[in-house]
Amino acid sequence: MTTAAPAAVTAPVPGDPPPRRRRVSRDTVAAWSLLSPNLVVFAVFLFVPLLATVWLSLYSSSGFGPREFVGADNYAELFGDSTFWRATANTGLYALLTVPVSLVIGLGIALAMNRPLRGRGVLRAIYYVPYVISGVVVAVAGRWIFNENVGVVNRLLRSSGLDGVPWQSDAAGAMGSLVLISIWTKVGFVMVVYLAGLQSIPKEYLEAAQTDGAGRWAQLWYITVPLLKPTTIFLVVLGVIESFQVFDIVYVLTGGGPGNATEMLVTYAYAEGFDARRQGYAATIGVVTYLFIAVLTALWYRRQRAQEADL
Amino acid sequence: MTAARRTGRSLQSGAGWASWRAVALVAGALVMVFPLYWMVITAFSDQGALTSGPLRFFPENPTLDGFRRAFDLLPFGQFFLNSTAIALVAMALSVTLNLLAGYVLAKYRFRGQQVVFVMIVSTLMIPVQVVMVPQFQLVAGLGWINSYWAVIIPRAAEAFGIFLCRQFMLGIPDEVLEAARLDGAGHLRIFWSIVLPMSRPLIAVLVILTFMYRWNEFAWPLIVLNDQQLFTVPIGLAFLQGEYGTDYPALMGMALLSTLPVLVVFAIFQRQFVEGVARSGLR
Asked: What Pfam families has UniProt attached to this entry (chain B) (predicted)?
């Protein structure tokens, strides 16, 4: 009688009872048929389009008229396309700024929230609410709040004797407002996931450390943070993937501007595919974006595994 | 003796820590809430008073004109109906499919299971915008442009939801399922009358997340819905921003209204949310 540990990823699937052959085959049929709606949708609307993206990246196509096979021309053009490299750098910078900051802040909130406190439910809801708001709403509000002339942020800065920040006309300002707004939307989710992680840390560990004279920071650094590592890995991977997919906020907040100061890989692909109607080229950007994500995720997992092997 | 002293000391430092963290949490919450507060203030303000004169933290003459103008400028009533229909149908469909797939991947053993699971999880890495061009061509080929099927069906299977379901359902004891099977219950029967009732926190998480994703979704509906009568609320809002970008009360009023349904769903299910997240092994 094993008690199934909740959420143990490696929980063993049931020991097979004796009358095996028939059961397994009947189960297999049931399993595949219960899975089939999902598999059909994935196949038709994701795997086929993914392959089609690779195929389309070898063509020049406007969506109208015949497409023309161009081989690796799109890739060659992409390699020399400064807007593409700018979009790549912007996307990387965006991930580098939003992911670590939202993780640190979210963890801080979760730690502070992890003990009884009056009004905890209300506080938790307040921190979480920005995450459920749509990217379009966030961006529409962001345009107003960060408006350089009449927005409240600059008006507050000016009334305290500082200069307003050129959130819209300056490249760094625009990226800054985008990053600040994104962090605002992300910390609540990070908090909830870390809260769930914190609940899984046995109290005895921390009590034992306290008995041994470890201070709060030592407990945090040597016990809590290492034990939260799976949570952190999950959040980093998810955060990076999300960063490489950021679209709605950028599209409405800055439209990639000023110039292409906030152009992201995905907004650039959209602009090429649906505004400029260069579908083959858009597909090429898509393929390369996908490769970036795959390589980054693989590298991160390898690093984590190497570190675990070192321990 | 030493034990008593230690308790006393930790209680004392505990009290200092408690007040410090309460202050920090409240200060942080104020920062988090301020943009929302400012949206509310703006929505109820007179347009002229917002951009001229001194900075006011409360509207002098609160008015609903902003809301009225938004509804006059674009048919937002229609947009709300459209979004509601899409979000509810898509949510019901996605949650059902997620639960089925999660159940199978957690509780069945069959050849190819691991491969299927890895393939599904790997789709998380595919940015939807990457496959948008062929997806668009496909949907156009099916004749679904300007049809809600184009918005609903391609998003019906969700890797993240399936992953959550699998992790959660690994925690359902096999003995319970085995007992039901010995009693002669069929596959769907076991799923319906045993697995589902044990998965309430999970369903709460799925309902919140899926409703939110579908309600908030922007890029894909923007591409496949061209007829203004079919617009969803986010498209309408982006359109309003593009056409009447300086009518801040109208914009903020509509932005707030469009957020309400998600907040209501969240409020209804939020109690089970943290438990659901925790038991889904999201940690």
From this structure: BPD_transp_1
